[in-house]
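Researcher: Structure prediction, please.
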Amino acid sequence: MNMTDAIDLFTKEKLDKIFPADRADTFFEALYGDVSEGAYDISLEFSNIEKNSLIFEFHLKQRPGKCLACNVTHGLPMVFSRHPVINLDGITKEINTLLNGKATCTGWDVKQTKEIDRTLHILPVAFHIT
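Model: Predicted structure follows.
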């Protein structure tokens, strides 16, 4: 799989179906018991191909009137790895469906959170392919 094929395959519309915008509210409801406690919205974006991995990113965008601080997002790799609402195994199945036999996701690794600026943090996930 090359980058052009991946960009054509993993469009914003398709990724929004895999990880809908309202999943952030479901996540915060499960995490805190109250949607209004959520400090950010979450979207799934395709980023790159590296070696035998498709790199996707969870974009954490600060909600109005909330603070997107490092102490809020630093522990997210472990949380996102395990949380059933985020459901990385389910995302893997959806990516495999989109790949339609061109490649197969065999696992994933959540990387460390990157602070882009005060309003955007990115959590990369490498989906390994064969």
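Model: The CA atoms of residues 27 and 84 lie 9 Å apart.
Researcher: Thanks, that helps.
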